[in-house]
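Lecture 7 notes: from sequence to structure.

We start with a single chain of 141 residues. Read the sequence below before looking at the structure.
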Amino acid sequence: MTQLPALGDFPCQTYDKLRYGDTDRQGHVNNAVFATFLETGRVALLAGSGLGLKHPDFSFVIARLELDYRGEVFWPGTVEIGSGIKSIGNSSASFVQAVYQEGRCVATAVTVIVQMDNKTRRPAPFGDEMRGFLSGLMLKA
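Now the structure, written as tokens:
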């Protein structure tokens, strides 16, 4: 990502409340918590489908997470998370996400998730309904 995205650029937007326990001895939110912020955004996006999060035959697993830290986050308060789909493969989808505090972009990320068959534990192709849902959440270039 060359230019930092605005929160309004994302088709799915949510937030997370910061907890005192998220902070470290430097006084800012610990870097490991950023992955949890991104998870909150992905779950908010996927929960809107009603298709994949509670499906008895399929689950989602992370195949790749690329996270760029762009600023510190401080407690107390909230962060806003923007999420959208960058690309869709046969059984995988790439998310583009960003985290904001007080309107300032503090992290950007690309995450690849794979739909997995719960019985075989192997990648499972998206059905037409899930593919259509994900297509509707593509991030505008």
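The chain has a mean pLDDT of 92. Keep this in mind for problem set 3.
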